[in-house]
Amino acid sequence: MTVELLDSPVDLTDESERRAFTIMVRDEIERFGFTRSNFYQDYLQCAFHSDVQIGKAYWSALAARRGKANKVEPLVSLAAFKRRIKPGDRLKLVAAPDGHRAIGTTRSIKAVRSGDLIFEGNVYLDFPRAAGFACDGRLVRIANGNEHEPDRHLLYEWIPAEQ
Q1: Cα–Cα distance between 154 and 66 in angstroms, integer?
Q2: pTM strictly above 0.85
Q3: N or C: which end of the chain has fewer CB within 10 A?
Q4: Which pLDDT value is given to residue 31?
């Protein structure tokens, strides 16, 4: 069983806080995973293995609480964006983490699938969960934060194809 943490009342950027929180969650999961147990004889048998992960949705929520860089109003939902964007539209990478080699490049969209976009040259861009996505109709913000950089994201400018 894999559990992905989406949000937490505490800031998990500190390694010791993160470890303590994941151990607490794992202990709660394993409370319900013991079968054929005899507590009086100290005999416990675990019925399943559990793994606790901190997902990108948590880092996106943490960045939102701290205040995001490159704010984009979420006027267009991820589902609506997938319906509106068409092959032939272009995305220009406006902002990205430090040292990103593709800043300023404009790529044409070759195909739109349910989980990702395919650019020309067979470059794939995976869609995030809805919590890590924001689009105002022109700018598209895709969160891809982690424990070291919670506010890490890609910011694209959406250029529709000429009609």
Answers
A1: 18
A2: no
A3: C
A4: 75
